[in-house]
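By convention, each integer encodes one residue's backbone shape. The lines below illustrate.
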Amino acid sequence: MQFPAMIAFEYSHHELDGFPTAVAWTLDTAQYKAVLIQPDDAWMSELKEDSTALDRPASELLELGANLADIARELGEDRESGTLYAEEPEMAEAMLERLYGALNMENPFEVAPMLELFKAWDLKQVEETGRLYLDRLDLAPHFAEQNILVWRATYAHLMEHGG
């Protein structure tokens, strides 16, 4: 079975004109990748070096973040093109546009709501399973990596245990 393509972002602020600060995505094997994003120079004009992009200091992004070209290349190698599923599809689409736009590239992905992956199950069951994993793993879904961990665990649980 090929695992579905899930993606989650963290961003500078919770508006569509924000920029991505971290991204996580699933692989076909159900493993995942997560990385901080080094801001593009143009984005830095929106953010002072000593300020915070939501939960991340700008200095952390500059020091530890991967460059945009490497992220775009790796995401493209892992997922090529097609549909990515996100809890916040409009925000994920905007962040992909900012990432690829900074590289003067077209965004090769479409983004669909995460819940489209869960149509076979009752919404209440999906929500309860997600809460179970949030609590069991002590996760905070506003972090990209932890968001992916919750959805990945929820999907795997429901596929294994049905409903």
